[in-house]
């Protein structure tokens, strides 16, 4: 994987698959915490005897290919935090239907998602529930090579934006351009296709939406300076949680102890990544050897302090963040129904002992 630009691409396409997700929910059984032997099982369960038999196979599905957003999960496996909770955790990459569909249908009990897709899913009756904010503040934004001289949203005018045609892209762009009296219709929109950021800006675009923790850090390592406009800096409503960990309502109802145990170990994993970024980077590199070690190490160093940031504990979600973003989506006509933010997330399964 070169960068998580394609992760943004997949996130921007969350509108279309939701109808298919609803159909899948009627065809799949929901909520099981145990998974088949094909889906679960790591070296943690390789031992013999009654202790090994008591281990519970559990899967968690990523939103995209592994990157430093996911380091806490890999650390929790490597450091034995899941094993201590009696869990034999398998980390999966998403299938064709995506992580949200896999979790909502009960194919797997846990996954990585985003606040925007959970919000859209909830208004369409998809029972996803966010159980932790992986990163406390939104680290995404619009980025451009420094030679394009894009220093503010006003400078988007007359430039070429590389995206994927999602309604949320133009809505966010319009929101921050409106604040400066700029006209979003003066931005030329170009479909990036499968190109990554670095290829696209050399080919036919001036700027794109990226996660700084990966693509921005890669730009530093490549000595290709960029200007970064974080969307959260222009609106409190755009400082939403991305990514989040999710489960489904049935899983919570049927087996809340599994959710609690999973989150206890996961919080320990992210705490380890916060306190030991270099060692955590090595864990991710070992687990996913195809990754660029220099990029992983630099990204982890930048991202580790941002997992918890100014929150009382890792994973904490504020009601106002869910309300503000839901209200913003509604104001932009991005929702097709009423959104009850109080049911979209919960902090109930975060371990109190994790607070610092």
Automatic annotation (TrEMBL):
It comes from the Bacteria. Residues 67-280 form the SsuA/THI5-like domain. It holds the Pfam family NMT1. Residues 1-29 form the signal peptide. InterPro entries: NMT1/THI5, SsuA/THI5. PROSITE patterns: PROKAR_LIPOPROTEIN (PS51257). Residues 33-52 are annotated as: Disordered. Keywords: Signal. This is ABC transporter substrate-binding protein. It comes from Saccharibacillus alkalitolerans. The lineage of its organism: Bacteria, Bacillati, Bacillota, Bacilli, Bacillales.
